[in-house]
Amino acid sequence: MDITEMYGQVLTGTVTDLNKDEAFVQIDGKTFALDLNELTEIPELGDEINGFLYENQAHKNKMTTVMPFVVQGIWDFAEVTEVRTDLGVFVNIGLDDKDIVVSLDDLPFEHSEWPKKGDSLMVKLDIDHKGRLWGKLADIELYTQIARSPGADVKNKDEEGTIIAIRESGAFVMTESYYIGFIHVEEQSQPLHIGQHVKARVIGTSHRRLNLSMRPRAYEEITPDAQMIVAVLEHSRDKKMPYTDKSDPDDIKEYFGISKGSFKRALGNLMKQKKIEQKDGYTYLK
């Protein structure tokens, strides 16, 4: 078997040599180094060991008994570790000394829609004819196969998930509950890119998917008056101020420049969102 056919495979070999850090395992005349710190006890010459084979970043043939969580035929989310506009993005699949590339051919044409470091992509291991390991990006059809169908009780619920595809009309999401969601461009609070973690609320369902919105509910919107109160509290000692909904209207007008009615509405808005609390004649920032 050619060595390029071994990369990415789980095979069994024989220990032919040892040093203080590594065991050297031979398979069909090819030698792979195995870190001894992976093993509970030092092997002996002639022992057989089963492990995953690959070429690391330093072009050294390696075996590991710690299986990567992404292999051939197994899809999982992998964290983006580096972005290269001339190549694609590198993702961590669980190998200590090697990240694999998701090719730019699998990524959106617009670089602004590419994932960023720390984002997550669902990939499986792909191996080309030269034995090189690649990350194959999941497409929308795969997500459709593994997604759940939403029930009637999801309306207005909060969901978190990962952007999996960008379209001109909006973005598709795989939620942590394994629903597919769609965020229309008018319901987005910012430009989105694949791999991005987002929070959104369910505003409806259609075609076995959730319709999502990143826009706040009406009561969650912070008015300019409420923003001013939060700013005052953030810059106050102990995050408190001697003004409440019981304060004198003239004192409120002099300090904040707004009427007591506007002040009370702003306080009510912030209390509904549990951003503030009132006690002992003070308003506190939570």
UniProtKB/TrEMBL annotation:
GO molecular function: nucleic acid binding
Gene3D superfamilies: 2.40.50.330, Nucleic acid-binding proteins, Winged helix-like DNA-binding domain superfamily/Winged helix DNA-binding domain
S1 motif domain span: 156-215
SMART domains named in the record: S1
CDD domains: S1_like
Family membership: Belongs to the CvfB family.
The protein's name in its UniProt record: RNA-binding protein
